[in-house]
């Protein structure tokens, strides 16, 4: 059975989607069969791997599991598939909260029920959640085996991670008791700043074994790749960002 990882951070701009794309792409290059699930209505993951946002998206797929063959699209990376998201997903949060449409007892399990049959097909399923701790993210956490937390090296990230871990504990005590912390990793690291060094040191001291060894540096090539619809392994495999994400993917696999 495959393992489901969910990428979560309620703060936007921390490299969450970039990390999901590139970790997934390198997992695939390392011989694993991987499915990316875009669960953010902005659809940035879909754009980042060059798939069109044609129907059916994850929104339609959750409503009709017979659409699997049409919803799952191949990417330019061998072994890497993806399910796109579009603006319709924004309405799902409203629908999930409507007890007349979705029974309360099923509200947090819709994505889990959708993805469960796919675990026998893929080695890893990676869910990219929106930058919030709302109902869509709760669905992602309920569906996952483990949560991966990208963390930007700045002061406010330290405050945000506390709130995120409180949400994880709530999910563990209610809808997903088997959910684990897959790990925390640093993104956009600039070794020239003392703040970045202090954040890394403090988080490593507090969270210890939960922190991955690999740190993702600031790298312009990582920022450019999504506009070309390519993971960094295709866009510039020799840049420092690519080498870092390959190492991080190897770490995630070894822990998984």
UniProtKB/TrEMBL annotation:
Top-rank lineage group of the source organism: Bacteria
Entry's InterPro entries? AAA_dom, DNA_Partitioning_ATPase, P-loop_NTPase
Q: Which CDD domains match?
A: ParAB_family (cd02042)
Xref: Pfam families: AAA_31
Q: Which residues form the AAA domain?
A: 3-181
Full protein name: Chromosome partitioning protein
Q: Which organism is it from?
A: Treponema ruminis
């Amino acid at each position: 059975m495959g393992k489901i990882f969910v990428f979560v951070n309620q703060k936007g701009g921390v490299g969450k989607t970039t990390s999901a794309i590139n970790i997934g792409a390198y997992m695939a290059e390392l011989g694993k069969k991987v499915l990316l699930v875009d669960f953010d209505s902005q659809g940035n993951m879909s754009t980042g791997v060059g798939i069109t946002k044609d129907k059916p998206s994850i929104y339609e797929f959750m409503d009709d599991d017979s659409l699997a063959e049409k919803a799952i699209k191949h990417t330019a990376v061998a072994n890497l598939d993806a399910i796109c998201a579009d603006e319709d997903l924004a309405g799902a949060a409203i629908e999930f909260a409507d007890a007349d449409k979705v029974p309360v007892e099923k509200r947090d399990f819709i994505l889990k029920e959708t993805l469960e049959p796919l675990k026998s097909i893929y080695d890893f399923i990676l869910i990219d959640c929106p930058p919030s701790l709302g109902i869509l993210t709760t669905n992602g956490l309920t569906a996952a085996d483990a949560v991966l937390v990208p963390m930007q090296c700045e002061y406010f990230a330290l405050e945000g991670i506390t709130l995120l871990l409180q949400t994880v504990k709530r999910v563990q005590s209610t809808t997903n008791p088997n959910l684990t912390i897959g790990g925390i990793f640093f993104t956009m690291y600039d070794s020239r700043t003392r703040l970045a060094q202090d954040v890394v040191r403090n988080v490593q001291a507090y969270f210890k074994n939960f922190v991955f060894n690999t740190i993702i540096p600031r790298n312009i090539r990582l920022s450019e790749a999504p506009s070309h619809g390519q993971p960094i392994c295709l866009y510039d495999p020799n840049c420092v960002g690519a080498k870092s994400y390959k190492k991080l993917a190897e770490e995630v696999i070894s822990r998984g």
